[in-house]
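Supplementary Text 2. Reproducibility record for the structural model of the 153-residue chain.

All settings were left at their defaults, and a single model was retained for analysis rather than an ensemble. We include the record here because the model underlies the residue-level annotations in Supplementary Table 4.
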Amino acid sequence: MNTTTRGISPLRQRMIEDMRLRKLAPRTQSGYIRAVRHFTGYLGRSPDTASAEDLRRYQLHCVDRGVSPITLNATITGLKFFFEVTLGRAELMAKMRPVRVEQTLPVILSREEVGRLIESVRNLKHRTALSVAYGAGLRASEVIALKVGDIDS
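Retained model, structure tokens:
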């Protein structure tokens, strides 16, 4: 039974089926398809005809365009899936490595800044929630889910 959708190439259909077989999330699937589509646009021909050198030049092209490391790594992952799983040509991706993503530290407020922040809130309920959140190091979703019984007063 051929379920190829009209307007989709057999190669793309095969990749979609491979992703469905592995139960990849819809956003992951669209990201992988986007990566292959952009590569195909750069290449100017079918991606199954690409060489390792084409992939290397494409990665350099992305770096030169200022693509962020996170986007570049997502692109490499999508292309890796396409070449290794869909085409069965893992040797093309052998030299493609993810790029290092710079780790940034969060901004830490001083005691005085935290005090001013908490004191600036006029509503007692909101001030209490903010104090508990900061004091316990809770995330916003954890503060929202708090119940009165969760607090040991």
